[in-house]
Specification:
single chain, alpha/beta, Nucleotidyltransferase, domain 5, five-stranded mixed beta sheet, 47% helix, 16% strand, globular
Length: 220
């Protein structure tokens, strides 16, 4: 089965407060190697983009007014991710936002069956430390020089590199899986990564505090 690395940008932190998606990116891989297939759209959120959100991702209200609405790209998006594992950092943020948009578009929601959350994996491996995408990139010496603002497509590329490191896998080896042992070892790592690791209440509170602190740092 192919994998999808997915990321979104939004107008704010909660769809319950009528915030919407402004960018969605998906990169397809096969055994973690890029297939050169991707889905990337800037989305008209049908509302104003707050200044604080603009400062984070750089997508202005005027720019996004010229783009397609989510409902206009929903079928293409669902077709792209169909029957694939979805790898995302902090699925508890991205997937509810996507399902909210899909519900508004009268489309089927994304099920949790094929969701792999790298935030959960990193928390289990490195408890008590920051496990943001930035922090993990620094931990694994992944180049962050291009990340001057949050960008869904770039973040998908960074997440793929982080995920490979989280599995303790070496990318060149993945392209030449010749022995049964190598295949079995890779499958064990992928199976492990799919386990659902539920954060504690304290972890959720700490994460919310971290998100708010990051937004304040970028806004002001």
């Amino acid at each position: 089965m192919s994998e999808i690395f997915l990321d979104i940008e939004t107008t704010g932190l909660s769809f319950k407060e009528k915030h919407r998606i402004v960018e969605i990116a998906c990169i397809e891989t096969n055994q973690l190697l890029p297939t050169k297939k991707l889905f990337h759209k800037l989305i008209n959120p049908e509302r104003e983009v707050p200044e604080e959100a603009f400062n984070i991702h750089g997508h202005s209200t005027n720019l996004l007014k010229t783009k397609q609405k989510f409902s206009e790209v929903a079928d293409e998006f669902l077709s792209f991710i169909k029957d694939k594992d979805i790898i995302v950092h902090n699925a508890k943020f991205d997937i509810p936002f996507l399902n909210f948009e899909l519900k508004l578009s009268k489309k089927n929601e994304i099920k949790n069956n094929n969701i792999i959350d790298t935030l959960d994996i990193s928390r289990s491996k490195y408890p008590g430390t920051s496990n943001s995408l930035d922090a993990l990139c620094k931990r694994f010496n992944v180049d962050l020089s291009r990340r001057t603002k949050h960008n869904a497509l770039l973040d998908c590329e960074l997440l793929r590199e982080v995920y490979i490191n989280l599995l303790d896998a070496k990318e060149p080896k993945l392209s030449f899986i010749s022995s049964v042992n190598e295949k079995n070892e890779l499958q064990k790592k992928l199976d492990y990564s799919k386990k659902i690791l539920s954060p504690t209440e304290k972890e959720l509170q700490d994460h919310n505090k971290f998100i708010k602190a990051e937004m304040k740092k970028n806004y002001f």
